[in-house]
Amino acid sequence: MVASGAAAGSSVGGAPGEEASFISALKSEVLTYTAMNGLLMLESSDEVGLVHVPVSLLPAMAVPRGLFEEVRALAEPFNVLVERFASDPVAIKETLAAAAKQDEFTRDLIRVYDAVLGGPRPSVARKNLAVNRSDYMMDQQSQRLLQVELNTISSSFGAQSTILAQMHRQILSKFDFLRQSHRGLWPGGSLLEESEDAASAQSRVPYQDTIGDIVDAFAAAAGEYRGSRGSALGPGGAVVLMVVQDDERNVMDQQILEQELWRRHGVRMERRTLAQVAEEATLGEADGILRLGDSREVAVSYLRAGYSPADYKGAEEWEARLMLEQSEAFKCPSIAYQLVGSKKIQQYLAEEGALERFMGKGEESASLRRCFASLWGLEDLGDPKTKEVIDHAKKNPHLYVLKPQREGGGNNLYDEKLREALEGEGDLSAYILMQRIVSPMHKSYLLRKGECVNADTLSELGIYGVYLCDNGREIINKCSGALVRTKLASSNEGGVTAGFSCLSTPILH
Amino acid sequence: MVASGAAAGSSVGGAPGEEASFISALKSEVLTYTAMNGLLMLESSDEVGLVHVPVSLLPAMAVPRGLFEEVRALAEPFNVLVERFASDPVAIKETLAAAAKQDEFTRDLIRVYDAVLGGPRPSVARKNLAVNRSDYMMDQQSQRLLQVELNTISSSFGAQSTILAQMHRQILSKFDFLRQSHRGLWPGGSLLEESEDAASAQSRVPYQDTIGDIVDAFAAAAGEYRGSRGSALGPGGAVVLMVVQDDERNVMDQQILEQELWRRHGVRMERRTLAQVAEEATLGEADGILRLGDSREVAVSYLRAGYSPADYKGAEEWEARLMLEQSEAFKCPSIAYQLVGSKKIQQYLAEEGALERFMGKGEESASLRRCFASLWGLEDLGDPKTKEVIDHAKKNPHLYVLKPQREGGGNNLYDEKLREALEGEGDLSAYILMQRIVSPMHKSYLLRKGECVNADTLSELGIYGVYLCDNGREIINKCSGALVRTKLASSNEGGVTAGFSCLSTPILH
After folding, report:
1. CB of B17 within 8 Å of any CB in chain A?
2. What note does UniProt attach to the cofactor annotation (chains A, B) (predicted)?
């Protein structure tokens, strides 16, 4: 990893003396801050050794303040859009019908969804809690932020992005003296005014409290749950069940929420894999109460797993998921929310009139639509418009991305592989074709496993939205902070824990 | 390490089911808390991989509330005692004369001390800042806490002990439900009332803010320094210089102070080894101003190194130390304070009238004296009283400890090695003989590198005292929190970072 970084950029060891000593001081500050504030991940699955999460030393993504405010303003309407789409089972199943035929995972999810809707308490399907995250890239041509995808399940780094923003603000203040003499070192630095003071520089990294927003929403959901249970609530109280992957290395981002939920609200969070849920949890047939062990009732089911086929090793895991969905717990997210986050629905929403079906024809829809990239469905290869774009993509594969329904990084097809897939004989209905957003490259100092490289990078901006809604009664709808991931321009992959990209922050100008 | 633990106690894997599941939940809580709150140390000197510091899962040392308050009340008089002794160069040099003949390190320290006193600004020797820590063990026979030693240099774990106390208080509250059904699992548990509520149980782990007390004292010293410099203060401002060992693994305990000093007071702390000080720092001949690089002035020299001969690899390091001592910076500690913390002076103070020479004959001296263990000097082997105790120690080596002047763990002689030393021909004047305090053993759950063992252990209680005094003008004198270290009863060694002992907390009853 270090080697590829060094190949892609210039090694810091080669920097001129003054710059090198500035960067070395920054690196030491970052290693201290990450170690002391939970910006860590497991080194391996041995559960003990820790290493800092990959980060940029300084805020990496320069964003015009107006564009930043524009995408922030979309978080609440996106929350509403997901809720409205998810409340329309006919629309979900129609839209996903062709993809479900090709994609087994989509089929399985819809099967669970149908079981809930056809079960004894269909209204539990609409006890919705969401930590959504809409991801954007800067389109160099239009100079706009275009949506890459809308995550409705397991939107990660909400906790660590909050702490990283604190770190970058502290650095801009603490290194004020040095920063002023090194404005040219990083794109953000050259945006600062020559004599800009520390407080002003700091305020360019937007304040956020995504940790607080998420745990406040958990606590509010737990409060709703307790209210509905009243004196019937069991002796162990109501807990938040966090469903996790068993080989998770990025545990700190999850545990920060666990700790803060306890500190702020005295609400306990229990971590379990789907297999453990299958083993330990029970669902009351008469009342739909989900219990962990004998006593503790589950008020919220919070999924940091279950978005990938690999999370369902067998029938047990699917039964566990069904149990979660059929329970009276708030679902973060429900299976309907998860389905609405799929690529096919993203592509459908971009079709004429589709978004408007849920959000009307007013200014709100127009604003949402302005961030959409161009997207094409591939169900009907005989359709002249589809034929036309496929022909264009075969000739210009670098202008497109081919995305499968499946969630989780590493599945997209680019360049030659995209061309091969389009030229092949396979059915493409579980894929969507998307405009490849060409972003401006920028130099960043990236720190991974203690090794620092200065490299050409690309950045992606995520905006969190938190939402709580019980069968149409909206309780919380809030935009909540930003996440920047910065990756080497030479890589098509983007996973942070896997080491392909680094957490960073926006710097507004 | 794990193997020796398993040999000394019963492995947790062998515990009955309910207990094992309670301990497993505790362990997971502790791993989360330590990872997120800087209770970490470097796995090795590679500067990146981290692992939790060894800790006990629960407060390990049961202490009667009255005894705890008694030793807390000694912290301020001990601070004063150190200041008064350190202000009497004749007393220091007389007391250490015999030891200095035998011990090269003591001789070197006194040489630096003489150079400061004989230099152009002898008053800088009394710009004193102290983080003292008096360590006690429970004497089973007398049921009193007896002083093991008084640390005047590099008293470590002030920061991490504060965070560990927070962790143990949180555990007593969060695991309330489980704790009540497992009161018999640990000595502290059986002290709790049967139906004691979480808040009451929590309050048995004394609140402390040693982090705040230490950084407030640093900031006060920096303020005094800035006040005395006025408009002459250079552009980089006044910093705290933390002198560290180059292979330090316990960096987090130090960096927590660095971070908090910045957060609370906007005062910067710079970490340097003695060799780096020799290379980078300069001392103004005319004004005694110590500078790092060209601009930053050093307001406080804070030693987390320099207490062991190994920290002085050559003449450069000694020159660096002399530069620190001769500067106008506050010294934490000064060389005089360091000398007053030596074993020989501890033994001298226990002699009739010696303590009283500095503290008078009143109740204060009587209180201090009550915590003294029996100590004997070994300069005059012809003295009948010395002969008598040596004869007794040769026959009963298990009742004694033989301690060299040198600081840092691992140098004490016990049992057969003690007998051999006393029977040998060597000069013993650089050693003191001390009553071995026999403490009650207790079972503890210890967590080291993620492995949990339940073992017979012994605990030691440290009480911090913070002190700031400029040539007799006392500015701060404060008792500040507790440290418990718990070690396997089967080991004579006690280093936490080395893995021999674990950080813990007192539980009062």
Report:
1. no
2. Binds 1 Mg(2+) ion per subunit.
**Distance, C-alpha B432 to centroid of its chain:** 19
Separation of alpha carbons A221 and A209, rounded Å? 18
Task: Give the contacts of B334 (CB within 8 A, at least 6 positions apart).
Answer: B86, B125, B126, B127, B128, B325
B299 CB-side CA count, 13 A = 24
Phi and psi at residue B25, to the nearest 5°: -65, -40
Task: Round to the nearest angstrom and report the end-to-end CA distance of chain B.
Answer: 32
Which residues of A6-126 form beta strands (DSSP E)? 9-11, 40-42, 50-52, 55-56, 61-63
Active-site residue, A229 included: no
pTM for this structure? Answer: 0.91
* Each residue's pLDDT expressed in tens, for chain B with a length of 509 residues: 223 333 333 444 444 567 788 888 899 999 999 999 999 999 886 678 999 999 999 999 999 999 999 999 999 999 999 999 999 999 999 999 999 998 999 999 999 999 999 999 999 999 999 999 999 999 999 999 999 999 999 999 999 999 999 999 999 888 765 556 666 666 667 777 777 788 888 889 999 999 999 999 999 999 999 999 999 998 778 999 999 999 899 999 999 999 999 999 999 999 999 999 999 999 999 999 999 987 799 999 999 999 999 999 999 999 999 999 999 999 999 999 999 999 999 999 999 999 999 999 999 999 999 999 999 998 888 899 999 999 999 999 999 999 987 665 568 899 999 999 999 878 888 889 999 999 999 999 999 999 999 999 999 999 999 999 999 999 999 999 999 999 998 876 667 776 679 999 999 99
Q: DSSP labels for B146-180?
A: EEEEEE-S----HHHHHHHHHHHHHHHHHTHHHHH
Token pair, residue A187, equals: 């794109």
User: Chain B within 8 Å of A244 (Cβ-Cβ)?
Assistant: no
DSSP string, B215-237: HHHHHHHHHHHHHHHGGG--TT-
Q: Which helix (H) or strand (E) holds A137?
A: strand A127-139
What number is the ipTM of this complex? 0.88
Q: Are B11 and B436 in contact (CB under 8 A)?
A: no
Asked if A170 is an interface residue toward chain B (Cβ–Cβ < 8 A), one would say: yes
Q: State whether residue B258 sits within 8 Å of chain A by CB.
A: yes
Return the residue in A30, A175, A244, A259 with the most chain B beta carbons within 10 A, the one to mutate for interface testing.
Answer: A259
Structural domain boundaries enclosing A415: 374-435
Give the C-alpha separation, A258 to A268, whole Å. 7
Rounded distance between C-alpha atoms, residue B274 and residue B320, angstroms: 6
Residues of B in contact with A176 (CB under 8 A): none
Please report whether residue B395 resides in a domain.
Answer: yes
In the residue annotation, A343 being an active-site residue is answered as yes
Contact A50 B47 (CB under 8 A): no
Q: Which helix (H) or strand (E) holds B289?
A: none
Task: Check: CB of residue B153 under 8 Å from CB of residue B337.
Answer: yes
Q: At B420, which CATH number?
A: 3.30.1490.50
What span, in angstroms and rounded, lies between the C-alpha atoms of B170 and A266? 10
Q: Please report the beta strands in B364-430, taking only residues with DSSP state E, as ranges in sequence order.
A: 375-377, 400-404
Q: How far apart are CA A196 and CA A211, in angstroms?
A: 30
Whether A426 maps to a domain, the answer reads yes
Candidates B306, B462, B485, B504; catalytic one:
B485
Q: Based on the structure, what is the number of domains in chain A?
A: 1
Contacts of A38 in chain B (CB under 8 A): 35-37
In a domain, A383, yes or no: yes
In chain A the first and final C-alpha atoms are separated, in Å, by: 32
Write out chain A residues lying below 8 Å of B252, CB-based.
35-36
Confirm whether B471 is domain-assigned: no
Catalytic residue flag (residue A284): no
